[in-house]
Amino acid sequence: MKLIKVAAGVLNQTPLDWDANQRHIAGAIAAARAEDVTLLCLPELCICGYGCEDAFHSPGLQEQSIAVLQELAPLTTGMIVSVGLPLLVGGGLFNTACLLVDGKIAGFVGKQNLAGEGLHYEPRWFKRWPNDVASTVEIGGVDYPIGDLLFEVGGVCIGFEVCEDAWVASRPGADLALQGVDILLNPSASHFAFGKHEVRRRFVLEGSRAFSVSYIYSNLVGNEAGRAIYDGDAMIASGGNMLARGSRFSFADFALTTAVIDVDHTRMNRARTGSFEPRISQGSSRRVEVDFNFRPSEPQLHAIFPAAWEQSSTLKEEEFARAEALALFDYLRKSFSRGFIVSLSGGADSAAVTVLCALAVELGVSELGLSAFCEKLGHISGLASAGSDQRELVRRLLTTVYQATQNSSETTRSAAQVTAQAVGAEHYEFDVEEIVQAYQTRVADVLQRPLTWETDDIALQNIQARVRAPGVWMLANVKGALLLATSNRSEAAVGYATMDGDTCGGLSPIAGIDKNFLRQWLRWMQVQGPLGVGPLAALKAVNDQQPTAELRPQAAEQTDEGDLMPYHILDVIERLGIRDKLTPVEIFRSLRPRFPDVSPRQLGAWVERFARLWCRNQWKRERYAPSFHLDDENLDPKTWCRFPILSGGYEREIAELRQYLKEQHPEG
């Protein structure tokens, strides 16, 4: 048996934060050494940060990355460690993984498949490294190998699949297996999306089985650059068996997942495979030989016990709670904000944002402990004086404000108060009716006519939402806190939001999630809640209501679904039209068997309404505050779903829908 103790390290990095990034990498290396780890795989581009955007094209970024690499190399004496950085070679910039062996640079592997869809714009900055090509790069007067390399370190062959390389059909691992690779390292920066962990688990397991190797997968963790959330997935598999999995959504700066692998075992598995035909060559320029003496490791029993919450039947609800909580915490500390401000209306959206802020505190303290949690928020003075009182800590970090007009109800006022009290927030009430009336009077005087609901409905609704913005912005400025917008994705799709009203804020944490799921999540929070946290029964006051903006007089009995359509139908239309790119007629035909109890005339009207509102409101989506990416149905035009601000508005497509309804459903 040739036993080697290996580790997948996850890191919470920040673009261009050289000192912190280096500190986290050094900490992971030191922790691995303390656990007698010989081989450590760290995430993609971990030196500079994955989300550097166009700063990747700065010569200074290249210089700093190389400087940090040279400072880290001596820390790896007696170890093998992979770190990621961008490297300029032959006039092109490449996303590379560097293998450090026994305190020295052994060489660099260039990423062969660049992620260029959705959140990812790698082809904007990097060139793909061509298959079966090796070269050299000069650093500090020394030439180092770079390319599609295989490292033979102390007789053990180590290769790379860098993130996207493992997601494509023609994986580099297949070619490396023919050359006798023993261990595949996958340093990744793979953003979180619902259900994505299962995809990663499958390709790690299948890669280890099909290639007869040990496979080490490491990922970033936390809110690295503002929008993308990383879950810190870490996995080690060997010969088709999962040996170790790390916990996801950690609040720590770094974490290790370790296992002992048997190189001889995977070699013999490959030798027994009848279809395996080794590619034997001499003197390949792609094979880099490095002297290294492996320390003997003891056999280790491996038992995979995923976190209990990951086995829950409500996994999506758990993932949403933990991803949002971690992202909010990281955004708070990395933006150096001194707390959160939420305009708490008593409705579902603002209640969800409020609860998520409280969860950021509860889950963070649960993992780190109160002292370490406060230390990570060291820029906020006085937190440590909260002592062991977690509710007091929430109160210092979270402020909510209920802002009433004459159209506000006692129901929402009470729901806001009860929710704030339940989570421990500092809660205020503003009466903004006088400000609303002042604006109405001023505009009426200018127009020389009264403003009425019959002639000025939208304007009268919007002014109520807009006058709520200056007060909470001022409160946020005074406190040095982060104002959170409360609009959701369903509202963004149809523009059912007041610009500079409920969209105001520096961050829009739920703009990536649909209203239907958000209501489902709030009910889950009321009766169950995250494992280890429990339910929040006070949310009954929110969940018992029909969603309403409360911008028309109460006698109008305004509801969101009355203004739009039922949210569960709106969300299906959105997915069909925006995610799946179907035409209005195709959307209608897909809806009919799903909603047989709704008349064709009504379904057609809702499809038409959605199409018109979608086209009309792209300018609003362009102006939303940054939001978190949660799934592949994101509407953020800056990172995911681009659409023209000015367009033909689907006029011909809507005409086709009307004609189809007339011909196929004349009865209505």
UniProtKB/TrEMBL annotation:
Under catalytic activity, the entry for this protein gives: deamido-NAD(+) + L-glutamine + ATP + H2O = L-glutamate + AMP + diphosphate + NAD(+) + H(+)
Single GO term (MF): NAD+ synthase (glutamine-hydrolyzing) activity
Q: Which UniProt keywords apply?
A: ATP-binding, Ligase, NAD, Nucleotide-binding
**Where is it found, in Gene Ontology cellular component terms?**
cytoplasm
Active-site positions on this chain: E44 (proton acceptor), K111 (for glutaminase activity), C163 (nucleophile)
Q: Which residues form the CN hydrolase domain?
A: 4-263
**Residues that bind deamido-NAD(+):** N462, E491, K620
Q: Which GO terms describe its biological process?
A: NAD+ biosynthetic process
> EC number(s) for this protein?
6.3.5.1
Annotated L-glutamine binding lies at S190, K196
Residues engaged in binding ATP? T486
Which pathway is this protein engaged in? Answer: Cofactor biosynthesis; NAD(+) biosynthesis; NAD(+) from deamido-NAD(+) (L-Gln route): step 1/1
> What's the superkingdom here?
Bacteria
- What's its job? Catalyzes the ATP-dependent amidation of deamido-NAD to form NAD. Uses L-glutamine as a nitrogen source.
Q: Which family does it belong to?
A: Belongs to the NAD synthetase family.
Q: What is this protein called?
A: Glutamine-dependent NAD(+) synthetase
